[in-house]
Amino acid sequence: MTSGATDQAEQEKSGNLSADIGRDLRAVRQSKGMTLAEMSERLGRSVGYLSQVERGISVLSTEELRQVAKLFDVPVSWFLVLSDVPEEERGLITRAGLRRMSGEDGEGLSEELLSPDLSGSYEVMRSVFAPGARSSKPHLRMTEETAYMVSGQLDVHIGKRSFTVHAGDCFRFQEEEFYWENNSTKPAVAIWVVSPPIY
């Protein structure tokens, strides 16, 4: 391959990554219910610049990417994982070693996105609840959520009702207060389907 062809291939790869980061930024922002103007104010960047980033025209600096990740409470790698995904698989396939982690929220919960991206009408997540962990407070989200318990057990509180769910059980709630507790000595693992996407 000639030097010119190599440079062109690198530029195309960089452009694709910029477009991917832009799409992911828009999807995360929208999933959090934040407008472009609100994000602009929180980051101290112009609406026009951030709009160009979301469209893949402008590129975030490393420091700006860190600020964006902090704003949306995701690791920086959330936006970079697609750089390792072959172009023909993007938006279609999520490989086991390339799942996006949303990190631990301090409650003993770690989650990873199983969906290829957040552009659809729902997302699929894998959640691991540490033994003895619990929600710090009830959560109320404008979502419909269904969870399948892969292993372990979880005490779930939906509205004013409480249940203990075990491996093989499913539960669902929609726009109701929800919190959870893992009162067992083993981790609990669940697969969630959430609509609309929230991460």
From TrEMBL:
Please indicate if the UniProt record lists DNA-binding as a keyword: yes
> Domain named HTH cro/C1-type: which ranges?
25-79
Q: Which UniProt keywords apply?
A: DNA-binding
Name of a matching Pfam family: Cupin_2
PROSITE patterns annotated for this entry? HTH_CROC1
SUPFAM superfamilies per the UniProt record, alphabetical? lambda repressor-like DNA-binding domains, RmlC-like cupins
Record region (Disordered):
1-22
Q: Which GO terms describe its molecular function?
A: DNA binding; DNA-binding transcription factor activity
Q: Which SMART domains match?
A: HTH_XRE
Q: Which GO terms describe its cellular component?
A: cytosol
**What is this protein called in UniProt?**
XRE family transcriptional regulator
Organism annotation? Hoeflea prorocentri
The organism's taxonomy opens as: Bacteria, Pseudomonadati, Pseudomonadota, Alphaproteobacteria, Hyphomicrobiales
